[in-house]
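Q: what does this look like with magnesium ion bound?
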Amino acid sequence: MTQLEQIFKAIKEVAIRISEEIKYADLGYTAHENATGDTQLKLDVLSDEIITAKFKELECVKALVSEEKDDALNLNENSKYIIAYDPLDGSSLVDVNFAVGSIFGIYENELNPQNLVAAVYSIYGPRLELVINDKKGSLPSLYRLAKDGEFKFVKELKLNEKGKLNATGATQKGWSEKHIKFIRELFLQGHRLRYSGAMVSDLHQILLKGGGLFSYPATSDAPNGKLRVLFEVLPFAFIYENAGGATSSGVNDSLFDITISKTHQTTPCFFGSKFEINLMHKFYE
Ligand code: AHM
Ligand code: MG
């Protein structure tokens, strides 16, 4: 098994564990905030502990960086892979029984966009699914947990040139004029609103239904948006670009053009089919 395969195997195991915990664990809050100021749910912390314990067993993991940890956890200094992850994205929606997920970015040696070599997310919905994208330039693959406890390959995922869905986040009273006009134009062209508030589910829906746009823009009160570059944005940017789509922060040609200055850095972000991203550039330029 290659080192990356060992990491994917570990992710499969933790995804099964976390999906079990989501069903039965306490939904309460802890007394702590994470580095971006969200009060941590017990489930956020538990998911983080499950993932940490599993990756600690792998010699090929150099360090872990988590949305729920203030600092990096160094494991094996001479190893290659740094894993940046959001242990339970959308966790505040577990109480309403919506689908949530875990997101993993696998970086080689250093935490910068060009060193992201693979991305994976799990989605805990009515079914347990995993999307694995094991290299740049290859299509992401969808797997689904079968009754026998094994993940079975379902299909490769590819975005159409243009989609039909529009998922748009953040408080609208803080949107810029150009964002309001752009989103309105998409609806006028016939796009339908789909937004649950868990980026894993919203991006998964767009990816599986062939295309559209997911955006979390800059707002007047959050000029750098909300979503975190290393754990959330780049893993999905990798998957969307490899699936034939495009990404941007609104001012660049790809989310991979971002410069990382801190671990918990956030950015405005757009992920979608090529048509929607091109249209965004017309409104945003
Ligand atoms: P989380 O990682 O603390 O769950 O927060 C991230 C979530 C994303 O999944 C989602 O896209 C976004 O926050 C929703 O935010 P908003 O309600 O402001 O649109
Ligand atoms: Mg998240």
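Residues 124 and 169 are 21 Å apart (CA to CA). The chain has six helices and 15 strands.
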